[in-house]
UniProtKB/TrEMBL annotation:
Protein name per Swiss-Prot or TrEMBL: Aspartyl/glutamyl-tRNA(Asn/Gln) amidotransferase subunit B
Asn/Gln amidotransferase domain sequence ranges: 328-480
Enzyme nomenclature, EC number: 6.3.5.-
UniProt keyword Protein biosynthesis, yes or no: yes
Subunit organization: Heterotrimer of A, B and C subunits.
NCBIfam families from the UniProt entry: gatB (TIGR00133), PRK05477.1-2 (NF004012), PRK05477.1-4 (NF004014), PRK05477.1-5 (NF004015)
Length: 484
């Protein structure tokens, strides 16, 4: 039997507001426990929450970026449950009238094809505190600094059909929220977390199978691993005559497996009702239009422009637009050197390779975009050849000079294009290599092209890499063929 996987994601994005969604307490990460929770976050008697306008604006901007409907009215509801890190006894969320209505995202897959994933809605809510188990023996510590941090929960339709698609969707969300600057997207610090709903069905069957929900997965890789595990578990279960039960599960990265947390039978009845302390949020068209005007160029538009206006391949355009930092770096290199293709090749090749080797992000690059652009300009105007360019790159990386020109000068890397000088070097190499010259002359004509490589290497060496390789090639061929 062939099976098909069905996946829907609920992504929680921490919004990058300075203060909390209903109070003035700071949202900064990493402070002393319980130093950033005020009376409102604790739900003390007599408090009144006030909506942070910045959180509303950020949610609307996300909605506009995913082509969603923005309803005129949205309403905050109380979701009632008890948990030690939720001192109010309810989470303020949006159930029936979310701030962002249906939308969609075009997701690019590994083979560069795109798929449209529909978004059911996105709603605003507050985060809970944190329970700390490690530092306490037989007790749990509660840190309420995170309580009241604004979250945007983005709920997809069950439109994904593989772990790869789910990861690509999550990356697309990450890319959009960081482009918009509405979240730092830092998954390691929990700024983006995701609940993964997974089910399987026989291929061709219309109705969905029963799903399991894997809670709080916090990396792209874990999303893929958790789905892979779930798919195998569910198929095995069904093929052995069992039934998938609707339940909440937990992914354990150490054992690379998911485990049951609670089944739907024990699930809470949250008794949602509109929060009496908060007015409905009413957005007029002018306000929404104003936010729309402030949207930056988004990943999909940038990708399209890189392809259509700059002539990059679909692959290059995708890689270079994936993060805003990468896109900005690439564009500056391109503007400085004036050649989009060269800029794309170097940013993805030499630069990304060096960054990966040293585990650095593009923001931490020891070579800035202006320096790389100036280096490429010297390749384009033939001041240096490709080989020397790599030496200059390395020297810039190691901080051995402030600019490409300075290094070219200091290291004497200027390309030799004077054909007299190149001919002299060629004559010397030919005179020094009688055996190789004889071999060349004896070889079949179609083998000679390959054999010329030896001579090119010798001449380049004699010039310390500065001779113009095309000139060396042409002149060598002339001189060797004259000996036939
Ligand atoms: P709930 O209200 O219980 O959270 P929802 O209908 O809101 O359930 O769905 C939550 C998430 O689960 C959504 O992202 C949705 O796409 C996904 N989902 C729903 N049904 C399935 C299914 N059968 N298989 C996989 N994902 C599903
Ligand atoms: Mg849900």
């Amino acid at each position: 039997m062939e099976w098909e996987t069905v996946i829907g994601l609920e992504v929680h994005v921490q919004l990058a507001t300075k203060s909390k969604i209903f109070s003035g307490a700071s949202t900064a990460f990493g402070a002393e426990p319980n130093s950033q929770a005020c009376a409102v976050d604790l739900g003390l008697p007599g408090i009144l929450p006030v909506v942070n306008e910045q959180a509303v604006a950020m949610a609307v901007q996300f909605g506009l970026a995913v082509h969603a409907d923005i309803p005129e009215v949205s309403v905050f509801d109380r979701k009632n449950y008890f948990y030690p890190d939720l001192p109010k006894g309810y989470q303020t969320s949006q159930m029936y009238h979310p701030i962002v209505g249906p939308g969609s995202i075009d997701v690019t897959l590994d083979d560069h094809s795109t798929r449209k994933i529909r978004i059911h809605h996105a709603h605003l809510e507050e985060d809970a505190g944190k329970s700390l188990h490690e530092d306490f023996h037989g007790m749990t510590g509660i840190d309420l600094n995170r309580a009241g941090t604004p979250l945007l929960e983005i709920v997809s339709e069950p439109d994904m059909r593989s772990a790869k698609e789910a990861a690509a969707y999550l990356k697309a969300i990450h890319s959009i929220v960081t482009y918009l600057g509405i979240s730092d997207g830092n998954m390691a610090e929990g700024s983006m977390r995701c609940d993964v709903n997974v089910s399987v069905r026989p291929k061709g069957q219309e109705s969905f199978g029963t799903r399991a929900e894997v809670k709080n997965v916090n990396s792209f890789r874990f999303v893929e691993r958790a789905i892979a595990f779930e798919v195998e578990r569910q198929i095995e279960l069904i093929e052995d005559g069992g039934k998938v039960v609707q339940e909440t599960r937990l992914y354990d990265p150490e054992r690379d497996e998911t485990r049951s947390m609670r089944t739907k039978e024990e699930a809470n009845d949250y008794r949602y009702f509109p929060c009496p302390d908060l007015l409905p949020v009413v957005l007029d068209q002018a306000y929404v239009d104003h936010l729309r005007e402030q949207l930056p160029e988004l990943p999909a538009d940038k990708r399209e422009r890189f392809q259509n206006a700059l002539g990059l391949s679909a692959y290059d355009a995708h890689v270079l637009s994936a993060s805003r930092a990468m896109a900005d770096y690439f564009e500056e290199v391109k503007d400085v050197c004036g050649d989009a293709k060269q800029a794309a090749n170097w940013v993805q090749g030499e630069l990304s390779g060096a960054l990966n080797r040293e585990n650095l992000s593009i923001e931490q690059s020891p070579i800035n975009a202006r320096q790389l652009g100036e280096l490429l300009a010297r390749v384009i105007d033939d001041t240096i050849n490709g080989k020397a360019a790599k030496q200059v790159f390395q020297a810039l990386w190691n901080n051995q000079g402030a600019s490409a020109d300075e290094i070219i000068e200091a290291k004497g890397l200027k390309q030799v294009t004077d054909s007299g000088a190149i001919e002299a070097m060629i004559d010397q190499v030919i005179a020094d290599s009688p055996a190789q010259v004889a071999q060349y002359c004896d070889a079949e004509p179609d083998k000679r092209g390959k054999m010329i490589g030896y001579f090119v290497g010798q001449v380049m060496k004699a010039s310390r890499g500065t001779a113009n390789p095309q000139q060396v090639n042409t002149l060598l061929k002339e001189k060797l063929d004259a000996k036939l």
